Amino acid sequence: MSNRNACGIIIFSWVVMPSLAILLGAGPAMAQTSSATYTFLVGAGFLCDSADSSPCPAVVKSLNDDSYEMSGAGTLTTPNKSVTAARTFTHKSNDGVVLETGVWVASELVSFDLYGIVPGALMREGRALGPPQFGHAPLGSGGRGMFSGSTPAGGLAVLRIRILPVLVFARNATLQVNCALGKVPSERAIEGIRLALEGGGGEFEEEVSGRTLFLLTRPGASAAAKAPAPEVDANPAPAEAPH
Questions:
Q1: Of 59, 93, 163, 201, whose CB count within 10 A is highest?
Q2: Domain boundaries, the chain
């Protein structure tokens, strides 16, 4: 195994996995205390359940045609602006050479503008991302079972993130996640992501491809809450006397 791959595995294990564990563990609890909790996907999860490869990952380009390919998942809450999100990225030159790869982790929710709640969005032409009752699908089918009780929504989330490449120094950036559902402003009609690196690292504002989605989570809605309680025998058999 190369040093590059080994470092990638270490970073993914130490940074992304704990972050996603917090995300998936904290999501239902956050939903119980706030009616404005959203799960969101960026070129990941059941958005990728399609023969078309363009939804995943999300791709954005700069003026010189360098690109970032990003995927991710997270939760955010308003109005207290809390966020948990993480996953991977790949930075490529304009001729397709991989310049760096690694993980990114959200550090702050700058803002979230809701375009609207759109319950039937997943069943519209071009967004057939799963069966009608995607929230009740088994966990093995792209993770759709995790989102039981959630409703699709459109919006724009602006996140401060920490980019952690495998071989070079870490840096901060601003990531915009735009889901063009609901009453979408004309200037944000294209679904996808935008990325601005701090410290003169460049701006990536041409959304090339990639699906994004916000899911409004009902308070207290979780698969665990719907699981039947174990049956208790009201008349248990007497324990056997020791010999």
A1: 163
A2: 3-219
